[in-house]
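Incident log, structure service

09:12 report received: a user says their structure output differs between two submissions of the same chain.
09:20 pulled the input from the user's history:
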Amino acid sequence: MKQIWSYMKNYKKETVLAPLFKMLEACFELCVPLVIAYITDVGIVDGDKGFVVKMGLVLVALAAIGLTCSITAQYFSARAAVGVATKLRHNLFKHIESLSFTELDKIGTSTLITRMTSDVNQVQSGVNMFLRLFLRSPFIVFGAMIMAFAIDFKAALIFVVTIVLLLIVVFAIILYTIPMYKKVQAALDRVLGVTRENLTGARVIRAFGREKDEIEEYDSRTDKLVRLQVGVGRISALMNPVTLLMVNIATIILVWTGAVQVDNGSLTRGDVIALVSYMSQILVELVKLANLIVTLTKAVACGNRIEGVFNVTSSMELKDVLATDTGENVDSPYAIEFEHASLKYDGGAEESLSDVSFKVKRGETIGVIGGTGSGKSTLVQMIPRFYDVSSGAVKVFGRDVRDYNYKELRSKISIVLQKAILFKGTIKENILWGNEDATDAQIMEALEISQSKEFVEKKEEGIESPVEQGGKNLSGGQKQRLTIARAVIRKPDILILDDSSSALDFATDSKLRAAIKNMNGEKETTVVIVSQRASAIMHADKIVVLDDGMVAGIGTHDELLESNQVYKEIYMSQNSAN
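09:34 re-ran on a clean worker, output below:
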């Protein structure tokens, strides 16, 4: 939580002025019972209406000044709270973007979303309430007690006992509820995770008729969240009635002892009214303090969860210098080299890839094929360093990918992942992600290579046609072709197509591969094609066959068809009709 509070250093003025104006408001509020006592003992007892009106105007002035101070304090506290939350959210997002896929997989998307939204909002509320009430409420409570001592020592002892008992109750509830709020936020993570899965996979759920099962699972998760929230809510709800009961009992005792002292002549009626007013102020402020503590308890729990994300560091060592700055020769004839590379996912029982070794020359087209779960996607994701090898090495242009900085390495590589991802905007805006300086002519060239030009030109607005979030207004094949256009517009040194044409028909797929092979440009592009279809890679210069995370064979289509049983089975199963 210390790291979270450090963000308030940027709002020193606000963090000083907000409590200061609240203290001023409290000072004027503490004067009110004395004025009322004065009105009672002088104006009412003597029947001096003019004095009553005069003191009444004083009360109005105190209220007006107090209101002004309160509004000013609220302005500064809100400004600091919103500023802290904004900076915190930006830095949290920046930190998450710096994490590797390993950490993102481990933490989970739903947890990260909760911590960037709900948890940050709770911290914002905590900062706001802290600046407004954390000093004001204790000041009123102890100020009222001091004023009570100024009026009567014996009556003030009632205040002392009441305040001590109230503090014991309040802090006991706090210590009990802090761990429970952490459990509530964790349960909220799980509910968010199920919700996200259901929304993103709605079509699959309906296709397999799993609506009832998903509803039951969602109800189960939400019921658990409700039980946790109700449990902690019941304990927190004890705060107000217990404090009310104790203060009201103290008020009864105060009125009783005050009446006796008035009868004895040691106190005036105005003094008793002032004492009761101070007790009422204590009651109101303790209720506020109780609510503040509940809010701060949530904020601390959420702040610790956010800090937990900040404490997660990337497992990948980042290089600040460019590979070319080191003075080493990187003019290798090979674009990609795997040297006994192995990879084991964090938390995985076994290696996903084991002892993979092969080399790809500049300008070659290499195919990667294998059964489901054989490690094809894992293999290509190691080239742009989405994941680091557990042992061995992966080299790009003769240099270990771990010796590049991200910017230089990723500038050499374009990758189209299995799942076509498009963003809300226009076709042009999505393609410009690949090269933000590209001209319309270059965009049209990329569309032509990716076989997207035909359907884009049929749209009324052409490349300015809107794209919904995730490309929901486009077919699967159209989305895949646009993501390929986004990749090829960079004219990269290495182009990786990770099963990115699975939604295309054979004719379009064939045209796409021919267009990629004949791409014009100054660079000699090395192409890596991952596919489960043998027809998509049979014309590659080299084919790598994977089987259960290991290389089962390397060679051309004809060579593998003759000598490799795994490749032969894949090819024959897909071409048995022929």
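09:41 both user submissions now match this output. Likely a transient worker issue. Closing.
09:42 reviewer note: The chain has a mean pLDDT of 85. The longest helix spans residues 49-98.
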